[in-house]
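Running this now, will post back.
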Amino acid sequence: PKTGLESITLQNGESVVMPRSGNGALKRIFIGAGWRNKSDGKRVDVDCSVNGFSDGVRSVPDTIYYGHLNNTAEKRAGGDAEGKIAEYVSIKHSGDVLTGDGGSKELEDLERIYCDLDNLPKTMDMLVFETNIYTGGVTFEDLDECYVRLVNADTNQEVMRFSVDRKTQFGNAALTGKVMIMGTLMKAHDRWVLTA
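Update: finished.
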């Protein structure tokens, strides 16, 4: 696997190892998705989601998408002097955006999902990042441009970007579908392993 925290482009099946503690640790991330509609005026709704897994089993309460914006809140001692108990969520969706960018400006994240990796439920050992087309009768081929990126939320440093276009290793076949798994982030002892 590749190592380091510079922005990388992974090919399908490649991995990068990132530390969970110490210098360059990955503690909080967000997944950002941006897309641009084709100039023919057809509006396309792209949605991003994160699926949490524990021992290979998907956790429905920890599946985050436009219809379920937060994972299950856990009760934790607060940071105030009185030590009050507060509810805390470790995965949070920014909200649903129903149409892509139609302008010519630089493409920006339209949807984000934030993950506090240090505070995920203790049994959660894998996150799967997915992008899908919600609009009926269209596919990724109906977009001018689309990307999903993984960003270190503490430094705003882009760690990985996945561009969905005819130049990717997936080619035209992937563009005719409505769902793409962009990658998995697996907890492995003292590190995170990100696989495309």
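The mean pLDDT is 79. More later if anyone needs it.
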